[in-house]
## 1
Amino acid sequence: MPYSLYVVTDPDLSLGRSHAEVAALAVAGGADVIQLRDKSASGRDLFAAAELIRTITTSAGALFIVNDRLDIALASGADGVHLGQDDLPVRAARKVAPDLIIGVSVGSVEEGRRAVVDGADYVALSPLFSTPSKIDAGAGRGFDLLAALCDDLTVPVLAIGGINASNVSQVIRAGAAGVAVISAVVSQPDISKATSGLKSIILEAKKSV
Ligand SMILES: Cc1ncc(COP(=O)(O)OP(=O)(O)O)c(N)n1
Ligand SMILES: Cc1nc(C(=O)O)sc1CCOP(=O)(O)O
Ligand SMILES: [Mg+2]
């Protein structure tokens, strides 16, 4: 499954390490996907980081997704873009990027169904648990909604928000195709070790699904 462990970068939570450093260490530890996420960088700086991560992920055989910015995703040759409910509509992105992976944040079954109809390749339940890593993410939506999305949708369902080594096994056993994390990887002193630790738990949990 290409989305098992999906690592999202964040310059404010990375203990001073650059997007590219984080990406290189995470793919070395077995991350399947790297998402470049930076809410304050200029387009120029974001593109420079994207070019570096494109090279790193290609060498490692990992996917590369850009958060929010379809233009940066296309210009850097990324595999995909991740869009939230307030971002560019999926339908509009799909029109100009027929072959790109498009991921969408969803907070209900209705949003999930609409994302799929509009052309999403995966959805992420946002957030599964409340998290200090994104102040406007709101309350955790819980396992019942995760299970309902997994039952209902025809695309892989990921979960994001508050996921770490102590709860990831439960998330996979609830049916998620994978998990997206920031702090459980990028805020750890040893990013590769944290990534490989999470990945082992995910692979073990998948054996019982
Ligand atoms: C994998 C994944 N899931 C959810 C999000 C959140 O997207 P969004 O709601 O658009 O919020 P921002 O990340 O843009 O602040 C995500 N980025 N990645
Ligand atoms: C980027 C992001 N989006 C979320 C959402 O719910 O939409 S929660 C989140 C941050 C996830 O960070 P952590 O793994 O440290 O909890
Ligand atoms: Mg967004």
## 2
Amino acid sequence: MPRPSLTMMSSDDDPLARAIAPPPDESPDQRAARLQAEKEAKLRSDAIDAEINRQRQAEKKEQRPIKVLLLGQSESGKSTTLKNFQLINSPKAFKAERASWRAVIQLNVVRSIRTILDLMSAAQASSAYPSPASSPIDSPSESSRPPSPFPTEASPTLTSDHLKLRLRLGPLLQVEESLWRRLSPSSGEYEATHLSPVTNLPLPARATKEISIHSSSAWKNAFGRLLSNNRGSMDSEQGIDFDDPKDPGLILHNCYEDMNKLWNDETVRTLLRANRIRLEDQSGFFLDDLKRVTALKYIPSDEDILKARLKTIGVSEHRFVLKSGTGNPSTSPGSLLTKVREGNLLSRDWRVYDVGGARSLRAAWAPYFDDLDAIIFLAPLSPFDQNLTEDPEVNRLEDSLLLWKAIVTHPLLTKTNLILFLNKCDILKAKLNAGIQFNRTVLSYGDRPNTFEATSNYMKKKFGLYVSARGSFYLLIPSTAAIVKQSSNSTRPFYCHFTSVTDVKSTFQILENVKDLIVRQNLTDSHLV
Ligand SMILES: Nc1nc2c(ncn2[C@@H]2O[C@H](COP(=O)(O)OP(=O)(O)OP(=O)(O)O)[C@@H](O)[C@H]2O)c(=O)[nH]1
Ligand SMILES: [Mg+2]
């Protein structure tokens, strides 16, 4: 016999319908009460459904990694900030890379010395043919330089001792060659850049290039291989093989006396000043630590690694998990993050992206704008008297401001947390202390005091105007003869820190606060708080 279909089934046949059906003798009052109860039950059920839905959405968001992008012009300190993240969150991996960074530091040392040697050659050539038109100071691009913030000195005359010193340092050129070859894959991924924005000297081709390694290249493997090598001469913990025949440590060690003599020579210092070169403010400067970094068993410290300079091409990514219970002295015991950590509610994946900041590389940034939690934008304050390497017409401070404006007003980033690091504060302080006048290049600064406090707060205000104020303002920089007049209608929160990201201790504190802020915002977005 065929079973009755659902439509054929009466409520008498359906046990559930029978169970919930109203009693046949229900009075009008009872009916009204029943309908009211059913209405309330439905409301409760809908509220529970909505809560479950909300929690599901939040969990989904919780599971996706927190993404942070580091932005800023070239040499602003992005990769150095990434190294700080690594040092804090993956110290073992950071340590494992010491051998590779040691090679970069050796190259940085050689490059600084080479700058001096090339300068000596140029000075010698111009003294042999003393024509005003060929002198470095009168080079055609001189007009594009910012006005000198300190008095220009006459170029000194080099003695035969200087020339002997230069000859004795010849082996360093081989060190440079061999380190270049080892660090770079055969394709040769160097991008030509000028040696320094303050020199327009006719230097040899090699000296005008800055070493840059594509992030996808396995340059660290050239040295990382040593990790598996178990030789007795090796510091296995640091992964450095001091007896490696290709290691240039011995040559550098043997050249220490001459390098030190060169760097501390008064005539050489005058020559540098006459050409407006302050090596001590440049990236990858180790000449004040020559004895230590050329020691036979030199192992780079954390600070050395942060100071090492290697230009980024491409994008590097650092992943880590924010562990529960990691100590943050700044997090108050009752704060949300502490509670979340204590309750072990939060073990989130983090991804920090570091991109190349040179002008030609900025087009590669946009694909990373999607789905970002925060951008840490680095604007170095110290190069207020320098122009861009890639565009000698543009002041570096002005470039940072315009870049910041482009990020603040970018349509894909309206909901992204923007955190500004006004960086290289240590170099800014040193420059101001050396008597370099801020208002010589930033004319709009007027006659305000030439102190760190006044100049840095002035720039904080300028950057802040784009995000948290309405109105117009200007920054006058004569090198470009441009008045950077801007207006802003935005009122986003303005998170700003004065940083020196080569300083491990202060940067640790700032990054912990930044992580706290990002987690907080992320939870707020997920409606968890
Ligand atoms: N003294 C000092 N040096 C800094 C500071 N921040 C960065 N540097 C140095 O400046 C140089 C450039 O820093 P990077 O982190 O390589 O710059 P970047 O923004 O990654 O540059 P690109 O890769 O070219 O885009 C490095 O030698 C750093 O050690 C700082 O606050 N103070
Ligand atoms: Mg970089």
## 3
Amino acid sequence: MPVNPAHTALWPAPTVSEAVDATVHVPGSKSVTNRALVLAALASEPGWLRRPLRSRDTLLMAEALRAMGIGIEEGVGPDGTGEAWRVLPAGLHGPATVDVGNAGTVMRFLPPVAALADGPVRFDGDPRSYERPLHGVIDALRVLGARIDDDGRGALPLTVHGSGALDGGPVEIDASSSSQFVSALLLSGPRFNQGVEVRHTGATLPSVPHIRMTVDMLRAVGAQVDTPESGGEPNVWRVTPGALLGRDLTVEPDLSNAQPFLAAALVTGGRVTVPDWPARTTQPGDRLREIFTEMGGSCELTDYGLVFTGSGSVHGVDVDLSDVGELTPGIAAVAALADSPSTLRGVAHLRLHETDRLAALTKEINELGGDVTETADGLHIRPRRLHGGIFHTYDDHRMATAGAIIGLAVEGVQIENVATTAKTLPDFPELWTGMLGI
Ligand SMILES: O=C(O)C1=C[C@@H](OP(=O)(O)O)[C@@H](O)[C@H](O)C1
Ligand SMILES: C=C(OP(=O)(O)O)C(=O)O
């Protein structure tokens, strides 16, 4: 297979000797944008998405919905300011083909949508997408009445033979490998004939805030959802069948993508302001206020946004990241530069993310002279003096941003394929050098 030059290109990560002092406008949330697209597509009237994230994952979602017949017009908003997408719901059609890339949200949220289409919808994606868990969605849809052809591994590639409607009803799943199984079934649930009742039977459940995000966004478009938090049984979510409203939704900045910029303030003893940080949010990135404070910074949340200030010292942490797994690479990078060891727990499922993130972080930090060991469910990180070298990224956007954090403090770090950040943050190199005033 020919090697894509972008995949081997090296980006010299800038090193700084002075404290960073910058304001960084972080683009919209991937998780919110892709949920909003699905909900708007399933609504019974047109809707708007303002400040959507425009990245590989969200463009794949938009393209997939278009392939099934939904209108999505990219342009400026009704008041003429800022990017806004108009979503025009329509009957869902097959035959259609969906490229999921390596987007968990696309490969998991769309098979239930495809089950509502009136013909076959073929799903395919990057080689890594074949390895990422999808059995929870496939098995559940079969129980709920869908016909799906796969190669028997419970993974991509596959075809959902939509018949225009799905019975729905109760279903048990083990979502211990991805919270997105639960979110996927809930998002389309209002359009199933009997709604859906999802019962998680596994021993652990990662990324619970992302399930809350799904529930909040469903309720915001008029769905009735019963949850463990609203007095229901533990690990059971129930969605009542019903029409969804078309809304005008403004997407919050992606707080997980704010992480490298906040980390820059922490590592350099500087200050970074992120405008429009929401006062209340279900995004897991909000936990950074607490975790990075424990690691040596301090923060102030104002009407303008979040001001995060480093103290000049970086401390290790012992933290359970099961709720906020996508923050692990960035926390590991900061922990490798700290003045004491760290233990990151509760994230065994990261072995099945964009890459095996526990193995990748261990290997890449150790190749720069670090001392990281994998545990059954996380990492032990003992800081050491690091040196330059190539930081491989394995087509993982968060590996690239983790390498850039280390590069701030360690000369000669070269990030392989920084373009992989386009998955959720296409302007990363420009935002990074802009923050550093380069
Ligand atoms: O629903 C979502 O938007 C996400 C849920 C989480 O997935 P897992 O539960 O598979 O970790 C998270 O890691 C991912 O980045 C986004
Ligand atoms: C795990 C992630 O993405 P995905 O939505 O592809 O699961 C992530 O963004 O860290």
## 4
Amino acid sequence: MVLERIQKENDIQNIAKDELPVLAQEIREFLVEKISRTGGHLASNLGVVELTIAMHLCFHLPEDKMIWDVGHQSYTHKILTGRQEGFDELRKYGGMSGFPKRNESKCDAFNTGHSSTSISAGLGYVEARDIRGEDYYVISVIGDGALTGGMAFEALNNASNLKTNFIIVLNDNQMSISQNVGGMSWYLDEIRTADAYTNLKKSLEKAIRKIPSGGDQIMNHLRKTKSSIKQLFVPGMFFEDMGITYLGPVDGHNIKELVRAFHEAKKVQGPVLLHVLTKKGKGYLPAEEEPSRFHGTEPFDIRTGKPLKKKEKDTYTDVFAKVMYEMGAKEPSLVALTAAMEDGTGLAPFHRKYKERFFDVGIAEGHAVTFAAGLAAGGLKPVFAVYSSFLQRGFDQIIHDVALQNLPVVFAVDRGGLVGSDGETHQGIFDLSYLSMIPNMTVMSPKNKWEFADMIRFAIGFTKGPVAIRYPRGTAYDGYREFRPAIEYGKSEAVFEEEDIALISVGHMFETAAKVREKLKEAGLNASLINARFVKPLDEERIAKLAEDHRLLVTIEENVESGGFGERVLEFANRMALDVRILNITLPDDYIEHGSVDMLRKEVMLDEESILKKVLTVYAGMQHEIAMKKGDQ
Ligand SMILES: Cc1ncc(C[n+]2csc(CCOP(=O)(O)OP(=O)(O)O)c2C)c(N)n1
Ligand SMILES: CC(=O)[C@@H](O)[C@H](O)COP(=O)(O)O
Ligand SMILES: [Mg+2]
């Protein structure tokens, strides 16, 4: 095995040229075998095997800096830097991350996870290198999908007057997670199909040069002219006109051609964009045929490509998909938006049925928010379905463009709370804080799948301002179906009313809270169980009433403490001088790594046992205090 000879970074330099295709094949087999067991981002990684090999041949690590946009395609880079063993525990708790991590390897120059950051970060490295008088190469690898993100263009704009080497690799496979969209994607397609006119270009060039007097001169003039005819001779004019040298397009599965192109790129004094054409899923037929499904996959059967586990129950995303589909027929002004996450957010059925009312804006969450604001101002009812952590990108737009004008945009905030194996960049643990601090914003979260459906319908019918509904990744809880009072604005739901202790849960933490209540009962304590429903506005009437009948209020949410639901309850209690003890159960003020959600909940003490223990400890402490006071009297 050639792969066995790769134990650490730069070992690839000792592999003979004619062994490189074998190495590529072995890496592909390794990836398919490992990811079929652990799950992970397969298709994007299969597409960049040769590209990564070529980069590792042409640059020296860790001195040179490779920055992987999103970072989901960095698996071959991990293999070539001696991390093969990590793949058995890929994306598992305590195991290797699925993204580049500076604390995992000195060869990972920059942490990524969210899209379109690589050119900005790379440019930062370049300027740091130059100011410090250092000497190394910086290579940012960005996909055609990630290039739809505005930040990538901001960075290109900024890089254009650079006078020293900065290599940007555009890995163009015509795919984001789904088919790539938008003007830049069409433009790249044109360059891609340049083959069609490369021949025309060659024969035209030949014909012009044959003109007896001055053919060569005409040719040179044509090359220099800024007219559209120049497109025929120089692909990538968009970049060239910005001051970025364009090289390519290059076959991204031909190591020799790639190496030659990198040698050219190294010579450029300034920013240079190397356009590389690859195939997503390359070398594993099921992934080539269904690159979207194999973008990020659960464990699967290598032979058939089918998932190992059958899905038995609806996810929250499935519920969203069904209700949107149903509401599309009832509400002609309903429009749906995604930022390149059509499948992940469940908008595909809506798209198929109501084509003209569906918008995929590319990986551009900030733009999507303002675009939604414009749609709402124009009289439509926009629903922006977006992952919680990606909506962080649109924070100012939510304030400036939506909430300040009180426009009725609905935010369907998927992947709220812990998401699991994607880890710290993708955990949706800040949303309750960053959304509920915004004036005019309404923030809801459902206890189960039935309530979720009701909330979507409620939000679509709500005309007074923006509404966010926050729900988690994975199977939708289908317990407590019979507890379904109509949604009333700003009102919580009292599921069980007792005395002494009240558990107030937010959204999907209801399931855990209900179990904790059962356990408390077994311990002889009857607790009330309240489903908050609204994080904002806070049901102050309920909190005040609970404070009268209970000695301990326990808030339970899967969100960081700061700015979360619990803090809002505390602040209210303090303001009203309520005579009640409040225990906030939240996530810590920290980033939470990858692992299964169950495992992570244990780790951060948001699981049933840990919560029960905390409640019992605090309650016992309170009893003790009372006993002490009585003793004093
Ligand atoms: C801000 C942000 N929005 C959405 C995503 C989800 N996402 C991850 S990869 C990806 C597609 C990237 O396409 P491309 O850059 O072309 O890489 P490919 O998978 O095709 O290699 C998307 C939308 C993300 N990581 N970050
Ligand atoms: C890399 C990335 O950002 C996405 O591919 C993400 O991993 C998708 O997550 P889900 O599996 O939750 O859809
Ligand atoms: Mg792509």
